[in-house]
Amino acid sequence: MAYEHSVDSWAEDTDDFCQACDDWTDADEHGNCKDCGIAYNTVDPFLTPSVAKVYSSPAPSVSAHGDVWGRTSGFTWGGIGSATASAWGSFRSNDTDSARMLQHKRHLDSLCKVVDPTVKHTLNFASKGENYSNMKNGTIYVDGTLIKHDDDKLDIVAGLSIHEKLHLVHTQPLVRWQKIYAQDNRLSVARERLLHSIGNIIEDEYIESQLAKTHAGYVTYIDKVKDHFFAKHDIETIKGNAIADVLNTLLAMVRFPSTISADRRKRHAKHIQFFARALKDALVDRESTLASIQSIYEYINQLVVEEAKKQKGASEEEILERADTRMSELLEGWNDDGLEMKDEHRKQIMERLIEQERDEAKREGRYADERLLTDSLDKYGGELADYDMSKEHIDDTLAKAIKELDDTMYSEEKWDSGRALGLKQGTKVTWKNQKANRAFEQRRYDETVQEMKSQIGQLKRRIDLYGDTKIHTIRNQRRGKLDKKMLHKIPLGRPDLFKNVIVDEDKPLDVCLLVDESGSMGSWKMDKARQTAIALREALKDNQALNLWVFGHTADGYDWGANGETNMSIYWSPTYQADFKAMGAMRARAENRDGMAILASAERVKAESPSIGGNKLMIVISDGEPSAQKYRFHQGVPHTKKCVKHLEGQGWSLIQVGISGARESSMAEMFSNYLMVDDMDTLPTKVSKIIRKVIKV
């Protein structure tokens, strides 16, 4: 952009617009307005020291669009980077809105952390289409309605998040200054609003200019935001009074000057020339920013005062009319009650009403500037200044769903083909901690413990034997530690006076119970699988040498998943024990992608295991073959076999426990070790025996 034009030439005064009348007029032979007689080029007489200093400063150069700062074409700072939300990975088009938005929320949160990790924040979606940051508690609220239904505006939301984080990083000094200035100058509520609005407009540009110095690549996101809110919205469509119109001119000059039309340049030439001078060095440093805000505030405040003078209180005729109306209402009330008002009383009351209306007219004139200012602030493009244009809101149902999902520590990851052992589709894995949210789920856990009290006790007694340290002493050795019991035989010259102590300690064992939660596992099948899980948890929970994970798996689910996903539920693990009754919520859901579930379970166990070098056992409870989107028998069985062999090569022991409906031929093809359970009542006992066999107790 070329910066060759003086702002005085860019926003020229014309002979047909009077700043005093704020209207198009004709000039007389002396160059004065024919209507008010004031010279078109007259300097405003209401200068404060701050305003006078700005008026007397040299005119800055501006671009063809009136930019005083040398910004890029999108009126952003620094070169436009390449970072976009598309680099975060692919997002699901068919997922539930809650899961999709939660993932976005976490990405946005990470983005804000990078901006400045030393300034703490919490990021949330605003319930209405608004964006703001709470300076007291560090909470950022961004407009989630922009991505409520799709990801088309994800870059914009990213820019909004960054912008609000920048406020937390930079804006505290402005907040302190505004409070001191308002107190020292005894500003009314309306004038405090005016100061805040002007400060916010300039501060927004200041903080975005700082981003270019520290994270230039993120400027892309700001560019997207400005394009969305300013380039695609015509400021001329924002209708208000004369003061609101001036505020909109200031807003456009600071944030996106190309929106200033030729007509506005003529109408507001004086204002533009002043604003440009005030803004010229406004972003050099914090002190300059505050000086700019102060001078512009004092300038617009005087405009308010002058404009309010044009607004007179009610005329005498209007006063009498108002009093007469009130008198008629009083008389009507008396008549309804069957009362008659004497002429003498009527005259007295009328005089009193007229006096009251005269007092009210005086008050109207006295506070005309306050009312004008309040009306102006309500009508100017404040929602645009705050990046708030959406009329939508996030409904309570969606907000609750996002929170509930977030509380479960929901996470997801896309596996590449190599990690998925050749699988190219259906390689997304999601995880969430399950909870017993409903009373009957908690009750179901407690009832199961009581029903299986005997089996749990038996298993626990056996399992408690595992992990005991056994010490063996071998005596009469020629080397080792001197055996004190043999000291009396030293005079005999015997060489076998030593002993060796062997400590036999059980290696830690990681046990993973993986339960098929596909739709075919409904009713009594799931009841027995649930019983098994609960029994194992109760029996193993206190043994330090045994670590237990209980996972459920489904796929392509309607609960929180989508087509092509393997959905993993965490019911119990060394890292998740907050809701041990979560197994009461175990249930049949959708489909099953067994190979991916087995691989994902093994990875998680390895990552979370508190023991190093321990043995690992995975027990898979299922009623059939794999069955999911593009993962039926001919794809699922070979892939599951490959996954089992891969883990066995890493030292895992895997056993499938097939329950009613499972085909032994399929089990034999997928697993080296398997067990058919025809009598479902024996399932918990059979699984217990498997563990006891492995640990040899």
- What oligomeric state is this? single chain
Class from secondary-structure proportions? alpha/beta
- Indicate the overall shape: elongated
Share of residues in helices: 40-55%
The radius of gyration is: 39 Å
What fraction strand?
A: 5-15%
**What is the typical, i.e. mean, pLDDT?**
85
Strand segment count: 18
Number of domains: 3
N- and C-termini, Cα separation: 82 Å
Unreliable runs: 89-94
Annotation field: number of helices? 23
Strand arrangement in the largest pleated sheet: 8-9-15-14-13-16-17-18
Outline the biggest β-sheet: 8 strands, mixed
Task: Provide structural commentary.
It is a single chain. The chain folds into three domains: 69-314 and 359-390, no CATH class; 431-463 and 507-695, 3-Layer(aba) Sandwich (Rossmann fold), CATH 3.40.50; 469-505, no CATH class. Helix content is 46%, strand content 13%. Helix 4 crosses helix 6, helix 8 (242-255) packs across helix 10 and helix 19 (524-540) packs parallel to helix 23 (683-695).
In short:
With 697 residues, this protein is an alpha/beta fold.
Output the keywords.
697 residues, alpha/beta, Rossmann fold, eight-stranded mixed β-sheet, three-stranded mixed β-sheet, 23 helices, 13% strand
What order do the helices and strands come in, and which of them pair?
Elements (H helix, E strand, L loop, with lengths): L4 E2 H4 L6 E2 L4 E2 L24 H7 L5 E2 L34 H19 L6 E4 L6 E3 L4 E4 L11 H17 L1 H13 L4 H26 L4 H13 L10 H14 L6 H6 L1 H11 L6 H24 L6 H21 L6 H24 L1 H12 L2 H4 L10 H12 L3 E4 L13 E6 L5 H13 L1 H11 L5 E9 L3 E2 L15 E8 L3 E8 L7 H17 L5 E10 L9 E8 L21 H15 L6 E8 L10 H17 L2 E7 L5 H7 L2 E4 L6 H13 L2
Parallel strand pairs: 5-7, 9-15, 13-14, 13-16, 16-17, 17-18
Antiparallel strand pairs: 1-4, 2-3, 6-7, 8-9, 10-12, 11-12, 14-15
Helix pairs in contact: 3-4, 3-16, 4-6, 4-7, 6-8, 6-11, 6-14, 8-10, 8-11, 8-14, 10-11, 11-14, 12-13, 18-19, 18-23, 19-23, 20-21
